[in-house]
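Weekly puzzle thread! Below is a chain. First person to post its structure in token form gets bragging rights.
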Amino acid sequence: MPNDSRRIALLLGLLFGLAGMGSSSAAVALPLLGPDLGVSVGAATWTISLYALMLAVTTATYGRLADLMGIKLPLLIGISLMAAGAVVAALAPTFEVLLLARLFQGAGAAAVPTLGVAIISARYVDEVRGLALGRLAGMAAAISALGPLVGGVVEAAFGWRAVMALPVLGMLVVPFIWRALTDQGTGAALDVFGALLVALTAGGVVLLVQSPSSGLLVAVAGALLVLLGVPAVTFWVRRRPDGFLPLDVIRNGSVVRCAAAAAAIPAAWFASLIAVPTVLVGEGWEPYQVGLLLLPASLLSLTLPRLAGRLIATLGPARTIGVAASVASVAMLIGAAGAHFVSPVMLAFTLLVVCVAFGVGQPALGAAVGDAVQVHVRGVALGVATLVFMTGGSVGSAMVGGLGELIGVDGSLLVLAALPLLALFALVPELRRSPAAEPAADLSQARA
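Winning reply:
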């Protein structure tokens, strides 16, 4: 079982990393694809923001599909969409086609984080599960962190279009994990309207954040989506308590608080992946040189799984999320200073630090949700938590692309440094009932 969990976790982490590489590798290509397609570099950042947006808003859909029909078919659909979107993005004749392809690519890639955590949570328990989740996050962070280097090398050899096609490699991983997937579900119908409401509301948040660099129309659209979407989602959840967002999941304070707190971690992670290449390429660095500078972060990621597993088992999932959020805040402060002084060393160290936060915080969130809900809604609960988690990532990248136009990259990172601190306030109730020395397994029994 330990060897099986290691293999499955690393393969799922590889898939997760290739999905993340859709942002991290593409970031170094932005200064090149923009002029090639006749748009500014600022406009080109939408290729990252839209990808991250779809990655966020479709995560919960896959979680619900997994509950209804098992994991096999939803994962196959998601990987196929990711690969097809990557191919179309690589061949896109216009910027508009590229954006559409990136939307589909992000919608497909969203299957990986939700279903990957669901697979681990369903197959393993206690410390084995915590270690497996840590390995998944560590491999994912390592591959994602390799994105700038791989993207830079591929761009130098074949151009930016080849960089866009990199997520196609995810199709090669599927055969090796196929036997670990289940096709058993409840067979219930999917609440499509509920999924659409949630997607539009989450999208409105990201549009609002991105709007400073995109104009009044985007700001108005985002504001309308949020103002109309929040009451609409509230109404629909009450009308359909067993729908897309089950009421017993939404009312689960542990799930909501842990997910909201953990969202600050990918915000820092995605912001770093965008900010560091943006600053250095703007100073004349070649994309592959940026990738080489960030290589230590990828190597560090491989050492984090065991640390994550031990922290989850020792501190409990909630306290581990709190630690990760604090580390993410420190990373943003370092990044703001590095961007202000254009210090390559500080920028590289920023990604090292935020890499630790992501590698610890993501598996801690999976463990917290797995402990807090019953088995029959675990998939959708993980999907909802991942929706919030990945929305944090899209907000982070959008903030660099949006606020960065007004207050600079350094200013946007300084603002982001406050988000993890706010996360700690959301976690207070969980921290009070999460004894520092109590193993995660005991926490699960206590909450049950």
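Puzzle host: Confirmed. Bonus trivia for everyone else. The CA atoms of residues 371 and 446 lie 9 Å apart.
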